[in-house]
Amino acid sequence: MSLLQSLSQRDRVFDFMAPQASPVDVRHGPILYMEDVTVSFDGFKAINNLNLTINDGELRCIIGPNGAGKTTMMDIITGKTRPNSGSVWFGSRHNLLHMNEPDIASLGIGRKFQKPTVFEALSVFENLELAMAADKRIFPTLTARMTGEIKDRIDEVLETIGLKALRHQPAGILSHGQKQWLEIGMLLMQRPRLLLVDEPVAGMTEQEMERTAELLTGLAGKQSVVVVEHDMGFVRSIARQVTVLHQGSVLAEGTMDQVSNDPKVIEVYLGADDEEAA
Amino acid sequence: MSLTTESSTNFWLTRPFSERSTQIFLGVLLAALALVTLLHVAVPPGNPLHVGAYTVNLFGKYLSYALLAVAVDLVWGYLGILSLGHGAFFAIGGYAMGMYLMRQIGDRGTYGHPVLPDFMVFLNWDSLPWFWHGFDMAWFAFAMVLLAPGLLALVFGFLAFRSRVTGVYLSIITQALTFALMLAFFRNEMGFGGNNGLTDFREIVGFDLRSDATRLGLFLATGVALALGYILCRAIVTSKLGRVSVATRDAEARTRFLGYRVERFQLFVFVVSAMLAGLAGALYVPQVGIINPSEFSPIFSIEIVLWVALGGRATLYGAVIGAILVNYAKTIFTGVMPDAWLFALGAMFVLVTVFLPKGVAGLFRYLKRRKREDQTTDPDHQHTSKEASA
């Protein structure tokens, strides 16, 4: 939000005077609010009048067939793609369409990509250290010191993601599942308010999936979590609220049972998927 | 590496001193400086152990190359920017020093002009170009040694990194940069002595450049500069900023996504590296007695990268070893079999790439790791490495 605009709003505290710890205003409930968002790539509408609201502390699963616009939706939220129209608000104060990627990241929106990208040459510990919410300008980074507080925070996250024993190992030697957890750990280090998790269990073993489900459900409540996933079994095991996307807009929303009994949904997605599974 | 992340001293500049590799490096370097000084001063000429002024001078040249290699390793090894134009920063630092040395000549030049260097008198210029002013003052010239290459790197890097030019494209434009500068400096109208460059130097801050004592002093000064440059680079790479650089090298988009403004980090490291290269050039010029546009030649910049690759990328000390080894070999070969030098260089590069892909430093690391594995006394360490391999 531009400084001038924020100064002219006399009914609230100036942005730059608001306490840094919780800059996101969620008093009205939703932490993420997307309204009438449309994106078109050369005439093809990847997102078409999308309306989506995520409440603070919620765990939301988003499903939909390929090309439904799931990844584009995440790109919009994180500032990678600019929509042609519509509005996207984080809390009720931050207009995400006016912010760039690093600003959105430091505001507290963390994204886990489909393919785990951890820094393979750095140790697990160092990966988490870099991800930590901190002053990320050049000189503060150059002179940054390792304090007991930071170490405790990293240890805490290492505990959560179950990689404590591997803390000094280079991230390059981790298994696929372990890399996914490290990625989630890196997101947690940023103390995000909203976690966007793209296909967390792709390529995971059954046990790894269970472990991931525990991890994500454990996070909900403290953080808002949005999970995009293809694996129906996994979605069923963690989901409370499910949103089905189809051709760039919301097709259905509700609990897993409601959604999976919706004839429209069965037609475009679940039916096909069940046949495949059977 | 992670052990130092957690348990080293807190102040970033003194952090390298608690590292074993830096302690060893500084120990070896200081011992070498002391030994050469001793053999030069205390052992009488004629004794086979005596190190002559020529050799001292040669070693000084190697040390300035070593500093240049450290600068290149900082950007290539730790930031992943393969600069094929670092010779340009080296040469600009060298020209800044050369301009100072030219002004020091005063009226003792061939034409005896009190202000104008010989080549300007020869070109019938009647006054000093604006950019030559101030170079009669040592402090100004020495500041320019760092500032001029730094400024060029700042402008060039700002444009390149802001447009997210990386990888092979960046390598190509750095090569183009140094080539363009070479062509420019060849022109007499540029005011840098054209083809012949700057030479015929007399003295530096009052010391006669032809005396053995000055040569020894320059050699020692270069050694100290190498030590300081090495410590600075180590301090950078062991800081959190160094880890951000490595992260940028391996996954730039991911690093940006963590909230780091990658282009600024790249710019910072690039400028520091360019300034170190400039310093190396400034120490090189008084020792070889000439600076001309051939230092800008693309081949030279590529050669620097070869030194680093041979010594071992992303270790810093490997760059020093590589620079000294290759240049020592060059001195020997061009003396014994001048025609064979390029073949020898090529052969060295092929052999190292095939048998020592991580360079000479990689060999050290390999031996160290073997030694550690032989004596795994730490049960905790054993435990984690076992689990990791599972």
Structural class of chain A: alpha/beta
- By CATH reckoning, the class of the domain at 57-80 and 108-277 in chain A would read Alpha Beta
Strand and helix order of chain B: HHHHHHHEEEHHHHEHHHHH
What is the helix content of chain A?
25-40%
Strand content of chain A: 15-25%
What would you call the shape of chain B? globular
The number of strands of chain B is 4
Mean pLDDT of chain B: 90
Spatial arrangement of strands, main beta sheet of chain A: 6-7-8-3-9-10
* Number of domains as seen in the coordinates of chain B: 1
Q: What best-fitting shape of chain A do the alpha-carbon axes yield? A: globular
Radius of gyration of chain B: 22 Å
CATH fold-level label of the domain at 57-80 and 108-277 in chain A:
Rossmann fold
Largest sheet of chain A: 6 strands, mixed
**What is the strand content of chain B?**
under 5%
Q: Which chain pair shows the most residues in contact?
A: A-B, 36 and 39 residues
Separation of termini of chain A? 50 Å
Q: Class by helix and strand content of chain B?
A: mainly alpha
According to CATH, the homologous superfamily of the domain at 57-80 and 108-277 in chain A is P-loop containing nucleotide triphosphate hydrolases
Total count of helical runs of at least 4 residues of chain B: 16
User: Numbering strands along the chain, what is their spatial order in the largest sheet of chain B?
Assistant: 1-4
Protein name (chain A): Urea ABC transporter ATP-binding protein UrtD
Keywords (chain A): ATP-binding, Nucleotide-binding, Transport
Organism (chain A): Vreelandella maris
InterPro entries (chain A): AAA+_ATPase (IPR003593), ABC_AA/LPS_Transport (IPR051120), ABC_transporter-like_ATP-bd (IPR003439), ABC_transptr_urea_ATP-bd_UrtD (IPR017781), BCA_ABC_TP_C (IPR032823), P-loop_NTPase (IPR027417)
